[in-house]
Amino acid sequence: MSKALTARDLEMVDDVYGAMMTDAPTSHRLTIWALTSLIFAFLIWAYFAELDQVTVGTGKVIPSSQIQVIQSLDGGVLQELFVREGNIVAKGEPLARIDDTRFRSDFAQQEEEVFSLQANVIRMRTELNSITVSDMASDWREQVRIVKQELIFPDALSAQKAELVARQQAEYNGRLDNLENQLEILARQIQQRQQENEELTTKIATMTTSFQLISRELELTRPLAQKGIVPEVELLKLERTVNELQGELKAMRQLRPKIKATLDEAILKRREAVFVFAADTRAQLNDMQTRLSRMSEAQVGAQDKVSKAVITSPVNGTVKTVHINTLGGVVQPGVDIMEIVPSEDQLLIEAKITPKDIAFLHVGLPAVVKVTAYDFTRYGGLQGTVEHISADTTQDEEGNSFYLIRVRTAESSLVKDDGTEMPIIPGMLTSVDVITGQRSILEYILNPILRAKDTALRER
């Protein structure tokens, strides 16, 4: 059996152990164990539980991009003004209209000329494709062929400019008909030269036969004349006839190359007529294509003037200032008409951070932006990221030094429970909590004790 503790033994132990060793009531012992367990559990929880380390700064919403200055490139008379100062506008929304009467007139004139040039180019290309010249054909009739083709115009041109298409079709037929008439005249000349050549050939053949017969007659008559049977006068007549026939035959034979050359020249002229027509058409086609290219570019500029007569907003934002309000007034090219403060999908917050809190800040840290115009406990804040920290401090009018940081948010508005968006515009004041790290609750509890320990027993 254990020996009972004496009063002296109890004095040798501490109060807690003594209470446990004595015959204290059970409820007291349970309370002591419960408190001990709670303290131990709290210490474990405080060791593992962490809280965010936050650097707090004050700031305001600034435009995420520069203020957009709205101008008119070409100027003109202000016809309509669709917005006023303070209006919220969307990207592409009309802001003002410049009278585009002159622009439309210029565009219509250039469009008419472009259509005309396009039609001429199509006609000339078809003309060139309708003509075929071959050097391989032996028959001069097959060396040049003209086969009319159908003029194919774009649907838009045929629909809008039916008269122009009809004129081009008539000009196409007229030019090819004229060329065919020229070729027909030259063909008759060729046929005439061919006939002359055939007649000459026939004459040469006939005269050759006559010459041969007279020569034979002369050969037979000469012995008879020598014997006195035939008068010498007859012999002389035959000799004169032979000489004349021989001269004429020689002249005809010399004439044959000339007639042949004339025939070849007529055939060549027929081909040259086609070459001249094609060369002239090709030169005009090149000129038309050059003018068409230049006019098409000018038409783009004219169309741009017409489209830019309606001035639209380049961004989503709020109209800050309207410089020109007079309808019917002249707007000079490049003069400011109005200014728009952009409101993009992301907000940019510029905040001030005191120098003592700047040490642990760096680009990329997460932040929570609280807009003072809206109750944070009700609407919450915006999540963002630090994207810029100034390289040096800046002083305000009161002489306070601070660093400027910029935080870009993921959203541009707060949302109510019913889904309604609460807009945030440049200039609204904010409170920015930059999360620089995490510390355990135990560190927060021990920090004052450790600081007191480090600074204890010191004297200035």
Automatic annotation (TrEMBL):
Domain AprE-like long alpha-helical hairpin: 148-305
Membrane protein topology class: Single-pass membrane protein
Protein name: Membrane fusion protein (MFP) family protein
UniProt keyword list: Cell inner membrane, Cell membrane, Coiled coil, Membrane, Transmembrane, Transmembrane helix, Transport
SUPFAM superfamilies, A to Z: HlyD-like secretion proteins
InterPro entries: Beta-barrel_AprE, HH_AprE-like, MFP, Secretion_HlyD_CS, T1SS_HlyD
Transmembrane parts of this sequence: 30-48
Main location: membrane
Gene3D superfamilies: 2.40.30.170, 2.40.50.100, Helix hairpin bin
Protein species of origin: Shewanella amazonensis (strain ATCC BAA-1098 / SB2B)
Compartment list: Cell inner membrane
Transferase in keyword set: no
Example of a GO cellular component annotation carried by this entry: plasma membrane
All residue ranges annotated as the AprE-like beta-barrel domain in the record: 347-437
Domain of life: Bacteria
GO annotation (BP), single: protein secretion
Family to which the UniProt record says this protein belongs: Belongs to the membrane fusion protein (MFP) (TC 8.A.1) family.
Coiled-coil features, chain-numbered ranges: 162-203, 235-298
